[in-house]
Amino acid sequence: MARSQSQYHCQSCGAVAPKWTGRCDSCGAWNSLVEERNEAASGPLRRAAGRKITLHPLQAEQAAAPPPRWQTGMAEFDRVTGGGIVPGSALLIGGDPGIGKSTLLLQIVCRLAAAGQAAAYISGEESADQVRMRAARLGLANAPAGLAAATNAADIAETVRGADRLDLVIIDSIQTMYLPGLESAPGTVSQVRAAAQMLISAAKSSGAAVIFVGHVTKDGAIAGPRVLEHMVDCVLHFEGDRSHHFRILRGIKNRFGPTDEIGVFEMGEAGLAEVANPSELFLADRRQAVAGAAVFAGIEGSRPVLVEIEALVAPSSLASPRRNVVGWEAGRLAMLCAVLEARCGVPLSGRDIFLNVAGGLRISEPAADLAVAAALISSVTGRPLPERAVFFGEVALSAELRPVSQAETRLKEAAKLGFATGYLPLGRKKLALPKSIQAMGAENLSELIELLGGMV
């Protein structure tokens, strides 16, 4: 005998509440609780029968071979996934609407199909004719890939388990999938969780890889329950600004490879093209002798990336000066401004500060502190920074500079692109650098200001 229970699930964070309230207690979202019913077993049926599992020794008799992978033919995508798609794995890719998720996955499906893999693209948002039109526009109309328009997760799972072997299945998107046995509407927490679980189970039992497309919220996080990110093996974020012509694919979670790896693509008429050297792309439109512009030598995953950081400090007529940041942490900028004014006497209070990472790249590592400080100092003094110079280093609250990892890799990338000077914190380790670049070390921000010509 089963009885029906009613629970309220938050559509923003997936939290469960026993009764409806206007505001979710977990994430604070308003009007996000939706009633969902589930059947709960009562009485003796709650105690399900089980079987004893077999425990195997941790140490294998033979060294386990690395998992086989399917190369997609797109080196940037393979880099982010750790070398290719692992059979039987589940991937989740999210991004803003119109950023190019469907275009990228359609290119991957067609390339794998052309290489002899059985790949299928299943769309829950577009009809089959619409997908064909997009493939024809990208020059992929002749690819031997499967195509279907379906939203019933049970039907798709049965197709994956069927006699016709499938190597890769694209689900675009998971928010449109549903199970007829659940009363809730497609896109709710229960439907997304149950549909994803059924599709992942079908893919792992048949050895096929499945890639889910996920919608994102206003904050940029993947919509739906957080448990969805725990269910999959790899979580990818597709970043970028639609006003720019390039996109960044970033690995957030990967059970088969490194995380925080990025792949850079350029959007063109024929779809997404790979960018082998992102630093050249980010610095392509850079102009010399501009006050407030500094080149940051960063590390994204395992590759060095050079990007320009722009700062503008202007007098403010407001009681609370503005602090607008694009591509960096606003809290970190506030901390750095306080250190510059309190420790080094840089006049920043009562002024508007605008900071931008050129090209739409988002930087999260603390090594960008020194480049941001140099850009702010240059904007205040009105003097351009030295030509062909890069900056990197972490700034402490005492204004001291702390060394960061992979300094040699950063400077070698800068030397490859024609830079002659690198400003960085002094470290105990002697760096092996190319002859074409010189390292300028400083212990604190005051020494950096003197190296840049002072505040006069």
Please tell me the overall pLDDT.
Answer: 87
**Could you name the CATH homologous superfamily of the largest domain?**
P-loop containing nucleotide triphosphate hydrolases
Poorly predicted ranges? 41-45
Cα Rg:
26 Å
For the record, the CATH class of the largest domain is Alpha Beta
What is the CATH-assigned architecture of the largest domain? 3-Layer(aba) Sandwich
User: What is the rounded distance between the termini?
Assistant: 83 Å
Structure commentary:
With 456 residues, the protein is α/β, with parallel strands linked by helices. It has helices at residues 75-81, 101-114, 128-137, 153-161, 189-206, 227-231, 278-282, 330-344, 369-381, 407-416, 445-451; strands at 2-10, 16-17, 33-41, 90-95, 119-123, 146-149, 168-172, 209-214, 234-239, 246-254, 262-268, 271-274, 293-300, 303-315, 323-326, 351-357, 389-391, 394-395, 401-402, 421-425, 438-442. The protein folds into 3 domains: 2-41; 75-276, P-loop containing nucleotide triphosphate hydrolases (Rossmann fold, 3-Layer(aba) Sandwich); 281-451, Ribosomal Protein S5, domain 2, CATH 3.30.230.10. It has a 9-stranded mixed β-sheet with strand order 6-5-7-8-4-9-10-11-12, with helices on both faces. A 7-stranded mixed β-sheet has the order 15-16-14-13-17-20-21. Strand 1 (2-10) and strand 2 form a beta hairpin. The longest helix has 18 residues, at 189-206. The chain is globular.
